[in-house]
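task queued by scheduler; priority normal; single chain, no ligands, no partner chains; default sampling; output format set to structure tokens
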Amino acid sequence: MPTINFLTGYGRFPKYHENNVKALKGNSQKKGVCVKVRIVKPKKPNSAQRKIVKVRISPTRCLLAYIPGQGHSLKSYFSVLISGGRANDLPGVRFSLIRGKYDFNFKENFDRQHKRSKYGLSRAAASNFSYDTF
């Protein structure tokens, strides 16, 4: 037999979703200014030279962001666009940059067919590529 408290739902609260990307304050993307560009090594068992950048998103808030893709021309005081998305093997790096926006508009030196939006390539730029060149 159910109790009165069970039937009335007393003491039950709806689930509250808390955003994991708190530094962006509810925004999906945010503009920032590069403070320092660094190279770090990933944790075990991976071995590489990962490029990251320290970004200032407000006068008091700095965070670390991963630079996706191959090659970049970022320097201090460049404007960049940040989104959530962590680098799995870099502790403390919870954000990534978006290519092709503001001062981060360096194009890669090869033609990419897949995941173009992640790396700032348009369909027109990718359509100039042909497999006959190999």
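post-processing summary
- The chain has a mean pLDDT of 83.
- The beta strands are 29-40, 50-58, 61-66, 79-84, 95-97.
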